[in-house]
Amino acid sequence: MIFAIPEYKNRIVIAPFPRQDQKRCWDKWSKLCDALGNILFDECLLLIGNEENWDEAEQIIEQSQNKDISNLCGCLSTLGLGMLLKECRLLICVNSMPMHLAAALGVNRVAIIGGTPANVVVQEGDPTIRYIEDPGLALYDPETTEYPVRINDITVEQVLEKIKELTDGKVCSG
Amino acid sequence: MRKILIFDLNYMGDMLMSSPAIRWIKENTGAEVDVVCYDFCVDIMRGNPYIDNIYAVKRRFPLWTAIEARRRNYDVVMQFNTSLLTNLLIWIAGRKIRLGYDYRGRGVLLNRRISIQYRTARNGNRVGECLRLVQWGFNWNE
After folding, report:
1. CB A123 to CB B12 under 8 A?
2. Taking a C-beta distance cutoff of 8 angstroms, is the pair A88, A171 a contact?
3. Is the ipTM of this complex over 0.90?
């Protein structure tokens, strides 16, 4: 597989694919890519995931009006992913391995959190993260891990707001 | 010199969240720290300066790894989760100290255990959870 990561642009990495957990699946990635395409000037979007996420990533790109998106699913080793994250401007993700790797590297990230309460996976006081938690997690039962899943209630505007907050408006200045 | 074996049979995100605890063990005990993890998680741990050896396994119940570990005579064998199967591996592998959580009686095979109300990574911050276990376990030993 041959791919190229644009060298001349700032990179925003998007990691939309959780591992084996439907509670972490958000359904508005194409719309987010559209919204980012409308307000970003010199950034490209890079979709990351495993090889089995390739088709799903292609669907996100197909459904989006924004054509400055590259599909890197299955193209990166863990080391390569770490190097990419270290060089990127921002990571937008669900709570999965890239989020934790970005935390270890001190990379700015906006996370859409489902499946597990944010306090389990996010360090309190971490200045490099902003997150939106599934509203249903307010009723999370740690014994059964059950709760009314409402992750798709999270809107694109909420995500953009968190991006503005985290980047002091330098990304998504609108 | 002490030797410690950690059964860290988790996905990559959980392994990253337990890595501060592994660093704490290395910095505070000076022991040789070995980790058993799934083969797809090796890349996450490779190059970690606080881990001396990584044993990659494919199965959820790597029995032969546990038997081999028993021959190596580790001072401490432990895990960061409440898995009963992994506690059984620890019981097979650990001749001396077997450290972990006691959740609903699952700690019966361990000889150093800390009570926990919920399964790990369900209620409290995961990083803090792992750190509390090792700080309690190793300070007790001191």
Report:
1. no
2. no
3. no
